[in-house]
Known about the structure:
Structural class: alpha+beta
Largest sheet: 5 strands, antiparallel
Distance between the termini: 16 Å
Strand content: 25-35%
Strand order of the largest sheet: 1-3-4-5-2
Radius of gyration: 17 Å
Helix content: 10-25%
Amino acid sequence: MALDQSFVGRTYPPTPAYEVGREKIREFAEAVGDNHPAYVDVEAARALGHPDVIAPPTFVFSITYRAAGEVVQDPQLGLDYSRVVHGDQKFSYVRPVRAGDRLTVTSTIEAIKSLAGNDIVDIRGDVHDEAGELVVTALTKLVARAAEEA
C-alpha cells in the first residue's frame, strides 16, 4: 500500500542534544579506516584552523540515522520497516562537526513516492549546534521493498 503523500513536508521535533566526544570521533575514524590526523590530534586540527578535532564527513550519519528513526517509527506514516533498505545518503556541510559540539537533528519528510510497488521516502535531517547554527544537512533515502506475491 502506497504511503500517504500528505506526510511530505512533515517536520518532527528536534532530537535531544548529542555531545560529540573526541573518543567517539577517534573510534569512528578508526572504524572507517580514515587516519587523517585532524580526527585524533588537537594540534593537527588547530593547524588546519579548527578549535578541536573534527569528525570524518560520514560521522554525522550516526546521529541523523537515529533522528530518521522517529520518522520511520511514526505509526501514522505506516512504513513497514521490516522491508526497508538504505537507498542513498548525502551530506551538505556548513562546517565540520567538532569535538565538544552539542548537536540536535530536526527531520523533515522531503518526498514520498511509489515505484514498482516500492515505497521511497526522502528524509532531510538538519543538524544544528547549541547556538542554533546549521552545521550540516543530511539527505537520507529509504526504500521499503514491495511485499512478495504469495
